[in-house]
């Protein structure tokens, strides 16, 4: 059985597609067979990222590991029972085509609540939730008091994850390993950053997730997307001297992969 990694939250701009591409490519470069799905059927940022990679590598005549991206197959609704949902079948069919040949399947969810995203969360062996260093983003996980100190209760996204956990428990599947990434953080140790750290640690104990380091805000990520590249590909495409920011970003990716602790994965880059 492939290990299913779902990257999701219900807010755009948190870096889900960037995280998805770097995790999928890192696993591919370490010799694992990786299939990927993009559940944002409108924007398809993750799918575009993989397509950009294939086009750039072909143009440059360079061979680099690339995850296997698949579109969700169309389903003939005439074959469905009245209570069945077409999106459930599209997702399960896509997973079924990848699972026999893959060690890992990475699923990138849209920045909104959809049926596809809800079902994907129930399939997750590992759930990765990138979170910007902002109480606007934190509000998806939990509500706080006006000082941003006391947690008053879980919010909509945490409740969806709880429901997904319940479904997996009923099906006698392994529990979801939920990892929240503090992503796109600024370099300065501001008061808001300290409050966010305290609130996330408090919430992690309360509703059961692990906290892992994500990526700092860096220009390099905007430059990589059009060519479909990741931080691990720079030397192969002619970058002879890595600047300090790129070296630091690569270390962040290494720390992230180690923190995710996927089964059978030894981080060796």
Automatic annotation (TrEMBL):
CDD domains according to UniProt: ParAB_family (cd02042)
Q: Superkingdom of the source?
A: Bacteria
Family annotation (InterPro entries): DNA_Partitioning_ATPase (IPR050678), MipZ (IPR015223), P-loop_NTPase (IPR027417)
- Check the record and name the PANTHER family matching this protein: COBQ_COBB_MIND_PARA NUCLEOTIDE BINDING DOMAIN-CONTAINING PROTEIN (PTHR13696:SF96), P-LOOP CONTAINING NUCLEOSIDE TRIPHOSPHATE HYDROLASE (PTHR13696)
According to UniProt, the name of this protein is Antiporter inner membrane protein
């Amino acid at each position: 059985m492939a290990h299913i990694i779902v990257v999701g939250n219900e807010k755009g701009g948190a870096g889900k597609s960037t995280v998805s591409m770097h995790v999928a490519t890192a696993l591919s470069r370490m010799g694992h067979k990786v299939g990927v799905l993009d559940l944002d059927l409108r924007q398809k940022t993750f799918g575009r990222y993989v397509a950009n990679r294939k086009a750039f590598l072909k143009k440059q005549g360079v061979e680099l590991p690339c995850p296997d991206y698949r579109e969700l197959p169309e389903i003939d609704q005439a074959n469905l029972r009245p209570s069945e949902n077409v999106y459930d079948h599209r997702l399960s069919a896509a997973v079924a085509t990848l699972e026999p040949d893959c060690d890992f399947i990475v699923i990138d969810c849209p920045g909104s609540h959809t049926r596809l995203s809800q079902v994907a969360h129930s399939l997750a062996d590992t759930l990765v939730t990138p979170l910007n260093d902002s109480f606007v983003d934190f509000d998806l996980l939990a509500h706080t008091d006006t000082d941003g100190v006391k947690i008053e209760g879980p919010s909509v996204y945490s409740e969806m994850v709880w429901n997904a956990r319940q479904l997996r428990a009923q099906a006698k599947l392994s529990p979801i390993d939920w990892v929240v990434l503090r992503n796109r953080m600024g370099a300065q140790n501001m008061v808001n950053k300290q409050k966010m750290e305290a609130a996330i640690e408090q919430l992690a104990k309360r509703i059961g997730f692990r906290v892992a380091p994500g990526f700092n805000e860096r220009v390099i990520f905007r430059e990589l997307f059009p060519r479909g590249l990741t931080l691990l590909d720079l030397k192969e495409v002619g970058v002879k001297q890595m600047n300090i920011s790129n070296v630091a970003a690569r270390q962040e990716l290494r720390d992230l992969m180690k923190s995710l602790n996927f089964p059978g994965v030894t981080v060796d880059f």
